[in-house]
Amino acid sequence: MSDQVITRFAPSPTGYLHIGGARTALFNWLYARGRGGKFLLRIEDTDRARSTPEATEALLKGLAWLGLDHDGEVISQFERADRHAEVAHELLAKGAAYKCFATQEEIEAFREAARAEGRSTLFQSPWRDADPATHPDAPYVIRLKTPQDGHTIIKDEVQGEVKIGNDQLDDMILLRSDGTPVYMLAVVVDDHDMGVTHVIRGDDHLNNAARQMGIYTAMGWPVPVYAHIPLIHGPDGKKLSKRHGAVGVEEYQVMGYPAAGMRNYLARLGWSHGDDEFFTDEQAKEWFNLEGIGKSPSRLDFKKLENICGQHIAAADDAALLHELEAFLKAAGKPDLTEVQKDGMQRGMYCLKDRAKTFPELLEKAEFIMASRPIQPDEKAAKALDDVSRGILNQLTSQLQNASWSREELEAAANSVAETNGVKFGKMAGPIRAALAGRAVTPSVFDMMLVLGQQESLLRLEEASAGE
C-alpha cells in the first residue's frame, strides 16, 4: 500500500447526491486534501436499471456545487466487470473459492429444514469440498471459502475493534451463474486497483467490511484502513428521509445556502474540533481527522445550518459572493441579474451581507437595488408616505442637490431637515425607506443612497415627494 493517502467516494447513481452521501464525500475529500493525498471518484453503476447518464450527471453536479473536486477520471464500476470476474477465477485457481451447483430450490429446502430444526439458516454448500471430477455440466456460481471457525476482526477508526464470528458469515457468492460479478467483489477489486488506503463510508457498510476482508485476505492484498461513520438523522432523531424536507444536495442550493456554509455545517455534523463551530476550508483540511468522528448518529439542525451559512455570507469575498448568487438564481430558475443590478450588488455587498443567512434573504435586503423606478411601495411602506412626510422629503431633496454624497454630508443634511421640522431623524427614516426601496425594512437609508448614487437617489426621492 502506498504511503500516499488515497480516499474514494463511491456512490450509486440514484438521481441526486443525498445529504448523507455529500457528508461522506466531504469527509473523504478533507482527509485526503489535508494530507496531500488523492480523492478519487467511482460510480457504482452495476445496477443498470437505475444507473442512467442523467443520474450520474446529477451526482457530479452536486459534488461540483459543494466544491469537492476529485483527482483523475471518474471510474465506472460496470465497465470493470471483466477485471472483477478475473479475480473470482484467480480465487478459484488458488482454492480460495469454489464452484457451487446448488439450485435455488435446493438452497430454499436447506433453509426450511434449518428453520424447522432451529439451526442457522446460513447456507452450507455441499460443493465446498467436492472433488472437481464430480462437477456436473450445469450452471454454477463461484463462492468464496469463508473460514468456518474463529473470528474476523475489523479494526475500525470510528467504531473501534469489531469482532464477528466466522460462523455468522456464509460462503459469499462472487460470480453469479451468468458470469456477472456481485457488488461485494467489485468494491474490493476496485478499491485495491485504485490504490485506496482509507475507506471512509457509512456504518451501514460495517458488516460488509467483514465479508470484504475475506477477499483481501484470500488475494494476499493489504486491507485498507476502515472508518465507518454513523448515519445522519432528521431533527426528530429518526433516519433522514423525504419527510424531513430536503435530502438532495441540489435542493439546498435552490434554497439559497452558500456552498462554503454547507461544507462547514456538514463537516461539523458528526465530527468536531474542540468547540469550533465556524471555520474555513483551510482550517477544516488542517484539522480533520478520524479521531474526531463521533460514534452516534448526528441530527440535522436547520437553525445551526442557517447560522453557519450567515457567518460564511458575512465573511465571503464580495465578487465570489456575487458569482455564487448568480449560480443560485440559475439553479432556482429565477431571472439573471441585469448589468445595472450586478453593478449595484457589487457596490452594495458591504451593507447587504451582514445578517443574511441565505441568498433569498440577501436579495430581500437588496430590493432597493433590484427595483426600478417608479418605486411601488408595499402596504407597510406606503403608510409612511403622508402629506407631511412628502413635504419633508421635498425639503430633503433640495438640501441634497448640491451635497458631495459622502456619508457625513448625507447625515448632516438629513439631521438639518429633521431639526427644521422639529422631528427626530427616526421619524424621517420610514418615508426615506419607502421612497428609495418601497419597503419598511431595509439597510440604512444612507447606505442605500451611497449605493444608488446621487442621481438615482434624488429621482426616487422626488417621485415619492410628488406622490408619483
UniProtKB/TrEMBL annotation:
Reaction(s) catalysed by this chain's protein: tRNA(Glu) + L-glutamate + ATP = L-glutamyl-tRNA(Glu) + AMP + diphosphate
Keyword Magnesium: no
One Gene Ontology cellular component annotation held by this UniProt entry: cytosol
InterPro entries named among the record's database cross-references: aa-tRNA-synth_I_cd-bd, aa-tRNA-synth_I_codon-bd_sub2, aa-tRNA-synth_I_CS, aa_tRNA-synth_I_cd-bd_sf, Glu-tRNA-ligase_bac/mito, Glu/Gln-tRNA-synth, Glu/Gln-tRNA-synth_Ib_cat-dom, GluQ/Sye
Binding residues for ATP: 242
Subcellular locations according to the entry: Cytoplasm
Pfam family, one: Anticodon_2
Primary location class: cytoplasm
Start and end residues of each Aminoacyl-tRNA synthetase class I anticodon-binding domain: 325-464
Sequence motif: 'KMSKS' region, positions: 239-243
An example Gene Ontology biological process: glutamyl-tRNA aminoacylation
NCBIfam families xref list: gltX_bact
Subunit structure comment from the entry: Monomer.
Family membership: Belongs to the class-I aminoacyl-tRNA synthetase family. Glutamate--tRNA ligase type 1 subfamily.
Name of the molecule in the record: Glutamate--tRNA ligase
Species of the source: Thalassococcus halodurans
